[in-house]
Design brief:
Elements lengths: L11 E7 L3 E8 L5 E8 L10 E2 L1 H20 L8 E8 L5 E3 L9 E2 L7 H10 L3 H8 L8 H11 L1 H6 L2 E3 L1 H10 L3 E2 L1 H4 L5 E2 L4 E2 L1 H7 L8 E2 L6 E4 L2 H7 L6 E3 L2 E2 H8 L12 E4 L3 E4 L15 E4 L5 E7 L3 H11 L13 E3 L16 E3 L7 H26 L7 H4 L3 E4 L6 H11 L3 E2 L6 H13 L4 H8 L2
Length: 470
């Protein structure tokens, strides 16, 4: 799909990254992969204690704002809205969106990092006979972040909303439906719900019955995330300033889109480990075979965007938690030293890996000689060690031995906002002993979504990204 860069782009694809904190709209030259324009808009996350909620209309308004800003920047490159051929949304995983019959939210969405559903996750695991039964059936063991646990929490704590619910969506599903009028999801994001069987590639009717969730409330599952779900409706086109009728891909979850944006997939790299350093930390790889997650309850055996699998382990506390420690200590992020005897586990929001939803931060090993810089270094080390332990389990799920020299020789791809930080890179390199690859491009979720948009126009998204050389 490569060709020389032209002064005026003739075919543009739009990738949308609707994350926890913001929306990014990235306009990409479909032939070269050049990022032509970017728009951004913030989200509002509310809640105290374990609650984390956002009104879904905030995501829609942020999408409008980000696309409008991006179109203004695109005009500076000599291209108008008519050059946009397709779009796709990648969204934060797991969030529970409940809608009425008109497609309006009945309440704020429960976000992935809302830990109030921890008791319901335990209840679900026990109801099916333990972690192994869930791993065999869905590829993953439910924790508080999973949509299934959130639905059960809603039924217990807000039964009126659960009874009135006419549709259940994930965050990216909600936006995709607003764009094209079709209720559709993809296998990747569906595999993070807790009610999708990754072995059969379909919703599990027995699990839905266990949850008291009617399949009629759920969107259809497209074959892949790059499948054309529909066309941009006139109403959505008027809001966004884009041409009606352009292709809208099914889209996917943010982790699946990041893998596409890195060129990981059936037509790209397989079994290559990735660490993503963001608000949460994630360790993942793409593999052709269903992950072996039995006995590895912290590994989610997700489906990937292109028909493969995405074994992934997620930590709740990464850059945001370390930034909090930096602020408390009154230090610049890179004003650090190795922690020495000090050990700091920055579990400020509870923790998902290990599964400790009620945990808090822990500091030990203080001496009279301990410095503020060492304490901040210990916070980095605590976050990184937690994530590296998760990575070892991901590799095991891929059938690899983390201690095998051949596995250890695989370069570790480092992405996310933290990858730009010197101390994050140094800490990962020092504690992992692995060679690091830090891609020059940074917006891999949005780039992956843009490639999915190209997929909706008939291309293989992973092959597109490989040609773009991201």
């Amino acid at each position: 799909m490569g060709r020389a860069v032209t002064s005026t782009p003739t075919c543009v694809v739009l990738g949308v990254d609707s994350s926890t904190q913001s929306t990014k709209a990235v306009f990409v030259d479909a032939f070269t992969g050049e990022v032509l324009a970017t728009g951004r808009a913030p989200h509002v996350v509310q809640g105290v204690g374990g609650a984390r909620e956002t009104d879904p209309e905030v995501w829609w308004e942020a999408l409008r704002t980000a696309v409008t800003a991006g179109l203004d920047a695109l005009a500076g490159r000599g291209a108008g809205p008519g050059a946009v051929a397709g779009l796709a949304v990648a969204g934060q995983q797991h969030g529970l969106v409940t809608l009425d019959r008109d497609g309006r939210a009945l309440r704020p969405a429960l976000l992935w990092n809302d830990t109030r559903s921890a008791p319901q996750a335990v209840e679900l695991v026990d109801a099916l006979g333990g972690p192994a039964a869930w791993s065999d059936r869905t590829g993953s063991v439910p924790v508080a972040s999973f949509t299934a646990a959130k639905w059960l929490w809603l039924r217990r704590n807000d039964p009126g909303t659960a009874s009135a619910c006419a549709a259940v969506r994930l965050p990216h599903d909600f936006l995709t439906e607003r764009l094209c009028g079709q209720a559709v999801t993809d296998p990747g994001d569906a595999s993070g719900t807790g009610w999708y069987d990754t072995g059969r590639g379909a919703y599990d009717p027995e699990l839905l019955e266990l949850l008291g969730l009617s399949p009629a409330l759920l969107p259809a599952v497209a074959p892949t995330a790059g499948f054309r779900a529909g066309s941009l409706t006139p109403a959505a086109a008027a809001v966004l300033g884009l041409p009606a009728g352009i292709a809208v891909a099914a889209g996917t979850g943010d982790n699946m889109a990041a893998a596409v944006g890195l060129g990981l997939g059936r037509s790209g790299l397989l079994d290559h480990p990735v660490l993503s350093l963001g608000t949460s930390g994630t360790a993942f790889a793409v593999t052709a075979d269903r992950p072996r997650t039995r006995g590895l309850p912290q590994v989610a055996g997700f489906a990937s965007a292109d028909g493969g699998f995405l074994p992934l382990a997620c930590t709740l506390n990464c850059t945001l938690a370390v930034d909090k420690m930096s602020a408390l200590l009154g230090l610049d992020r890179d004003d650090t030293a190795p922690g020495g005897e000090a050990v700091l586990l920055p579990y400020l929001d509870g923790e998902r890996t290990p599964d400790l939803p009620a945990a808090s931060g822990l500091l030990t090993g203080l001496r009279h000689t301990t410095t503020r810089q060492q304490l901040l270094g210990a916070a980095y080390e605590g976050a990184v060690v937690t994530l590296l332990r998760a990575l070892d389990d991901v590799l095991r799920a891929c059938g690899l031995d983390p201690a095998d020299p051949r596995t250890a020789a695989l370069p570790l791809r480092l992405v996310g906002g933290g990858a730009a930080g010197r101390t994050w890179r140094d800490t990962v390199r020092r504690l992992s002993g692995r060679p690091l690859v830090v891609p020059a491009r940074t917006e891999h979720v949005a780039l992956g979504a843009a490639a999915l948009a190209a997929g909706a126009t008939g291309e293989d998204p992973v092959a597109v990204v490989r040609a773009w050389d991201t």
